[in-house]
Amino acid sequence: MMMMKKIFVAAFIMLIGIAEINAQSILIEAESFTDKGGWVVDPQFVEQMGSPYLLAHGMGKPVKDASTAFSVRKPGLYYVWVRTKNWVPGNWDAPGRFKLLVDGQKLERTLGLNPEWNWEFAGEIQLGKGTKQISLQDLTGFEGRCDAIYLTMDESEKIPSEMAGLKKWRSNKLGEPIVPEKNEKYDLVVVGGGIAGCAASIAAAEQGLKVALIHDRPVLGGNASGEIRVHTLGIYGKFERIIKMLDTEHYPNGSPAALKEDQRRMDNVRQYKNISLYLNYRAYDADARHSKINSVDARHTSTGELIRFEAPLFVDCTGDGWIGYWAGAEYSYGREASSKYGEDWDAHGLLWSPETPDKMVMGSSVLWRSENAGKKVGFPEVPWALDVANNYAAKNGEWQWEFTRNDLSQIDDAEHIRDHMFRAIYGSFYNFKNPTAPSSNTDQALTDTPDWQKKQEHADSLQLQWVSYLLGKRESRRLIGDHIYTFNDVRDNTRFEDSVVFENRAVDVHYQINLLDADQPDFLSEAMFYNTRQYIVPYRSLYSKNIDNLFMAGRNFSSSHIGLGGPRVMLTTGQMGAAVGVAASLCIKYNVNPRAIYASHLEEYLGLIESQK
Length: 613
Description:
Layout: H1 2-5, E1 11-13, E2 18-20, E3 25-29, E4 40-42, H2 46-49, E5 53-57, E6 66-72, E7 76-84, E8 98-102, E9 105-106, E10 118-127, E11 130-138, E12 142-152, H3 163-174, E13 182-185, E14 188-191, H4 195-206, E15 211-215, H5 240-244, H6 258-270, E16 275-279, E17 281-289, E18 292-300, E19 306-310, E20 313-316, H7 322-327, E21 331-332, H8 338-341, E22 346-347, E23 350-351, E24 364-365, E25 368-372, H9 386-389, E26 396-397, E27 402-403, H10 414-433, H11 444-447, H12 452-460, E28 462-467, E29 478-479, H13 487-491, E30 499-503, E31 507-512, E32 525-530, E33 535-538, E34 550-552, H14 570-590, H15 594-600, H16 602-610
Parallel strand pairs: 2-6, 13-19, 14-15, 14-20, 15-16, 20-34
Antiparallel strand pairs: 1-2, 3-12, 4-5, 5-12, 6-11, 7-10, 7-12, 8-9, 8-11, 17-18, 18-19, 21-29, 22-23, 24-27, 25-26, 25-28, 30-33, 31-32
Helix pairs in contact: 4-14
């Protein structure tokens, strides 16, 4: 009994948003706040920093407070800690500053000041017994972030900061089970609700399979969604009917026209009664043994609910290849040496494949746009952004707003990459609104205006309309299948006996423009093009070489760096998704793995694909 009294337990009652505590400590996950106000849940970097978090994405205007209730069982003095981060440390005020209010009392310390993710002391407060309120008050509108809040009566308690210890500590405090207690069983589990994942789910459901579609956002579409707003490119191939249910109009990248497609896409997926849609669930582990995945575990990005998904077949549409990675699938990352596949074509003075392999990949974009407010509007000074933007000025950001570097991983350094783009955007917009003289590095909309005063008046009325806080990724892990699709397959117009994906757009591989001109910004890109006739991706590039029951569809399909350059666009990856959805139905029919479809059932499979029209 005495031992039990010494165990500190903090549990969540998720449905009503009240954090229950033991006698001496309370842990509140920020993403579980019942009223998120103007803060948004950001789950992109869980694998790197440990949890979804709340982001004050106000584009320079402080957002509405986020708040939730918690219950105090033992009255007394509590020491309050907040896990947060100064995302631009330097000789300026931290851009993401915020305050914490507990029971209506604003705590003394300003938060968001320490570099890297860590616990900051917010202050101390005397609390009586009962239900209390806690709130986050954004001070800047510039990406303040809060992961968790911890209240303890032990002034000297050491809170873990390193990832392994922190994960275990959090689970203990929240009373989380070691494994999910809720199990769901399906014929096919699709992880990732972009165009590829949606197409895979629909194609499989139409063949009678019971499908789980797991997606970590509230809307479907991935890069095509209203949250990221990249327009779709490519052709429909053999799957026009299915992909048209998911496609978008060819609006400019970043256009609000993307929003209207979200509901249509959602309705088209939800009409299938045998697709169970798990929105806001992020997969975090895969159990694989003897080259076979048994289950995938996912956590709700706000409530923290855990679910285990069991199935004979899985489709990795995560983009980053997470399911394959956790399962031990073979994968590649970066540019291969030109000698590996003989991909030695060059353009713009740059080799598409270098002489020696490296970690350079196509970058991620953060799209954005401004609007005319019809009156003079200000924009805060952003000294913390100007060493990235320098003297570049702009009022909108299209696909060329992209960032990658050989020393950065699009997976492990994704938060840094996103934040670098924030600095480029806010700094460039500030420069546009505060022009001093024409510059060779200034946006064309500014330099082409003949009257400098008119330029100033135009800039004065502009305000930011929308800035995505989600990365639009182009390339990271590529899972390895029985066939690695290369540039040679495009150049030679290779015809495969298992041809399932067809495309006729140019191959384009992006590079940062500062590689050719060091005076150019590091956050802008250009593309090397190779114009060609139709090219084809085989089925053997859509399942794992060494994990027997794993399909992949999307930019993580089996390809070389340059091989990805053509088929990476969303209509083409949608074809990949539909192709594996159809293949999965035959795997269930014959109780075989994906490789056996090529080896023993290819004619029937190709016939099924032809019938999709």
